Amino acid sequence: MSSREPSEAAVRRSRLGTNLLSYSVPVLAVLGAFAIGAIMLAALGANPFTGFWAMAKGAFGSSGALVETALKSTPLLLVGVGITIAFRANVINIGGEGQMVAGALASTITALGMTDVPAWAALPLALAAGVAGGAVWGAIPGALKAYFGVNEILSTIMLNVVAVQAMNWLLRDPLIDPMEIERGTRIPQTARLPESTDLPLFVEGGRLHIGPVIAVAAAVLVYLLLWRTTSGYRLRAVGLSADAARYAGMSVERNVVWALTLSGAMSGLAGAILVLGSEGHRMVTDGSTIGFTGSAGFNGIVTALFGGLHPLWTIPSSFLFGGLLVGAIALQRAAQVPTALVLALNGLVVLFVVSLDRYRRQLKEREEQSVSSIATAVSEGDESDSSPSGEDDDHG
Amino acid sequence: MADIFSATVIVATLSSGIRLAVPLLLASLGEAFGQRSGVLNLGVDGIMLLGAFGGYFTTLKTQSPWLGLAVGLGIGLVLGLLSSVISVSLLAEQGISGIGVYLFGLGMSDLLFQKLVGTPLPAASFQKAPIPLLSEIPVVGDLFFNHSIPIYLAFLAIPVSTVIINRTRFGMNIRAVGENPEAADSQGISVTRVRYAAVTIGGVLAGAAGAVLAIGLGIFQQNLTNAQGFIAIALVYFGAWRPLGVMAGSLVYGMVSAVVLLLKTRGIIPLGASDLAAMIPAVITVLALVVAARRFRAPTALTKPFIRGG
Predict the structure, then answer these.
(1) B294 to chain A: which residues are within 8 Å by CB?
(2) Fold type of domain B2-295
(3) What is the pLDDT of residues A203-226, one digit of tens each?
(4) What global pTM score does this model have?
(5) Yes or no, beta carbons of B96 and A92 under 8 Å apart
(6) pLDDT class for A124, splitting at 50, 70, 90?
(7) Contact, B103 vs A296, CB < 8 A?
(8) ipTM score here?
(9) Given this model, what pLDDT does residue B85 score?
(10) Domains in chain B: boundaries
(11) CB–CB of A344 and B111 under 8 A?
């Protein structure tokens, strides 16, 4: 095709170059956000360097800090992995918040009903209920998109609203702690869940429960699912080109539903862990989703983007963003800067990543074009090998 | 029990429903402009929050709600332009970029509030401006002609927008770049410029929506909008991208919220039941999305960035 043929070494070099560039996009995005964060700190009268140093120390500086960071990272990782599944199938899931709430409610209701269930069964059942609750809350927009043509961005947004109102209703009325009615305080919270459903702690009396381990295991499982099973291959194929997937005999509709179901299941598990691992061992609402999730349903999008939409990279990514949230508390103490700063910075990270994304993709396309022209040129007589392998170097 | 059916209570409830509908109406009307031009702006809630804080803070400091509203509009203008740069010039994925604007607005408005105000202080609000003669008509007068000026202006914006979208060259250009940007481009219409204008109008109206919300309440708090900006986006679908439809959707929300509020404060039905009733508009909206997907067609180029020759 092409008039000149670059050598294989040149191809390798250009591929390394584009890969470096494509990996650097999220890093550049975070650096950009931090640069603006530094300006904001200075504007608020705080020294940016001591501010960021306080943040880093507060997030990663001691074993206690690391425990808090791991706990904060857990919902971010699970939601981020769920977002990754959806985005890989070219479905946009903005419903992480609602799916977390749905999972938490399902898990809470199940746990409340398990006073007589032996401990070995109670916790797995409560967690499974969370997975199921989130899965249902994801499957609904999936089915609406696949079979009714409803835009999933809109339906997931609206299901967030429905979920928060369902939560407020359930926690104020049917699920409210009977003590709250007796005392007349009517705080919208459930009774303490049965102890058999507490997430086991690593150290008695400590804070670290097995939630982070569950989240990492889930991330690895999702990686294996997406890159080592036919089901995952189908999801990604639908995401890359729905038409080609349909032509190859795959059901696009079923894969869309499946992607959002799995995605919701991950957020549902995050919600369940938030409740079962909470200090009060109960579900509480302040009337908003944010009050329960701490915006993890949206911040999970940030971690997924920073993790390059890859389940394994989302593990360190969520640890970093969890650290930011924990570090923000130290920053508040050291420099009287409200923790909301981190939320604003997360927003900027998203804006930088999506703004730079087009250039990353253009680079990628240019590289693929040059590689494919070489492939045709080099392996003229050879059978071309372009079947999807297990390699996970694709980032888009 | 019987007194909730008295005329005064019904009028007061419906009238507060109209008031509650206004922020949604402004935000979704603005979003309709952007979407008709082919741009989905998911950041409405973030723009509303910053507009709300700006409006509240200015009113608090100057005692002038009008200055507050102007600041809200200004903040909306800046963020609308920023959203245009990201969606139109940088061709970002619209389903995600708005979430960035939202998180930024959510965090930034809270940060500024805590840093500059701290404890929630009440601020001045708009004066009621009964319209002479009309406001004296029994029932109808109190219902429609006894509000503050921003509320009249918001409802006036509906027919004005209908005329702009359907009857002016600018409106025609908006529809053209939303339906077929390639064709519009070949006709010499600048897709970029029209989309910038439409998205910026959306930003200004979202900023106004936030300011009207906060100044109307006379307070600000973290996450004041409580996802109203997201509901506004869904209402654009609900209203089939038409100003009148958007108004109808906002009024459904406003009215149901007002009735729920009435039932709650009067303790007519158990608290739990009114919480359950509060779910109704959201559920209706989900069902409306299904109906809208069948009966109405979204602007063809919606969420698709335009690249010349691409």
Answers:
(1) 148-149
(2) ABC transporter involved in vitamin B12 uptake, BtuC (1.10.3470)
(3) 988 899 999 999 999 999 999 999
(4) 0.90
(5) yes
(6) very high
(7) no
(8) 0.92
(9) 95
(10) 2-295
(11) yes
